[in-house]
Amino acid sequence: MNEKIRRIGHYAKAYYSNRDSINRYQRGVRSVNARKSQTKTIVFLINFPESWNSVKSVYEEAVAQNDLNVFVVAVPRKVEEGQYEKSEIGGMQNAAHEFFCENGIDSIKANLENNEWFDLKELNPDYVIYTRPYNEFYPEPYQSANTCIFAKCIYIPYAYGMLGSDALFTVLPENFIFTTRKVYFANESRMLESKMKIPRYGRLARDRFVHEGFPRFDLYASSVNCLKGESNKKFTIAWMPRWTTDNLNSKQKASHFLAYYDEFLKYAERQQNIEIIIRPHPNMFPTYLSNGVMTEDEINNFYSRCEAAGNVRIDTCTNYMNTLLEADVLVADYTSLIAEFFITGKPIIFCDSLDGLNEEGLMICGAAYFAEEFCEIEKHINNLMNGNDEKLSVRKGLIDELLPNKIGQIGKNVLQSIIKC
Questions:
Q1: Which domain holds residue 45?
Q2: How does pLDDT run across 184-217, given as a tens digit for each residue?
Q3: Secondary structure, 3-state, 87-124
Q4: Is residue 119 a part of any domain in this protein?
Q5: Please, which residues have CB within 8 angstroms of residue 9's CB and are 6 or more apart in sequence?
Q6: Domain holding 279: CATH number?
Q7: How confident is the model at residue 78 (pLDDT cuts 50, 70, 90)?
Q8: Do 41 and 141 share a structural domain?
Q9: pLDDT in tens, 403-419
Q10: Domain presence at residue 225
Q11: Do the Cβ atoms of 162 and 338 come closer than 8 Å?
Q12: Domain assignment of residue 210, yes or no
């Protein structure tokens, strides 16, 4: 009974806190539904190029359709508070636009040379697709409460969410979710939990939450259960440390970078028959620097030591997929990329606990090797190098259970669902 009362209280509070956005969303959906055009327009709004793989197969299906207009709008990444307000718009670095140019994908640069933001309404979009649900990381014209009045906002998550209910309103902020027409969850647990806990006000929100699979998995259709890295001369270890620390954010799972980076470098010096690829979270060094966790000199020294080692490299490539395919084993704190590496069938060494994970997270991370100290990481690596992979059959069985038969078709199914809504 207490839980029911709490839920009713939350529903009422959430409505009064977000009623303007809810009303704007409802008016916007009705306005788009009233259009008579036979050709629909989809806009992919991208501010983190690392999130592109989450919608790549959806985009490729869309551009193959003759009855769709498809646009990509590249937005500058927000790296500090107040950046959009205090910087000259035209002079901002736009990493997303650079990424699309490098990869031969047509895109519209959102920050115009005249120091104005490109007006999305010029495209007359029926749908605007987001890959990140945090309005504060978009310029005001692109925040969902403003776009939902002239287009249906669609959210395709950039990550395979494996955290449980404690993280729900952090990863799905209601000021964003209430403005979306559809949210395409990567796994069933997150969808069911959202249906139970996140209010859906009115008829136009009842079918908001959908599970069609994770479009990123389409990119691995030929790599499921590949079991080993691609064309490696050396045994290759990928290390993906998280960006948080206990003293910066106690609600987030913490990083082991500070505890392990010196040990990893010493291990690389002792083991010249291996290669280590370190891929820090994009927020890690900026966060450490701005919060005084590391100095610029310490970060530069770390880069120098990696370069000097000869068999260690830092992966800063926008597309992390090459690292996942190249590696023979992944060593990681909590990261949603574990799910992508998992479907290759290759082993994972997990430097965290199972606390706070949802059903899929428990299954995936529960099939990993656990390490609380670096000596345990080293022991697991050495065993795997010698061909001793005791959890191989467990992983293979779980892959068959977790992966939908429609892998390779997920983007197509998501697109079909979008254009019907």
A1: 2-219+406-420
A2: 999 999 999 999 999 888 787 889 999 999 999 9
A3: CCHHHCCCHHHHHHHHCCCCCEECECCCCCECCHHHHC
A4: yes
A5: none
A6: 3.40.50.2000
A7: confident
A8: yes
A9: 766 788 999 999 999 99
A10: no
A11: yes
A12: yes
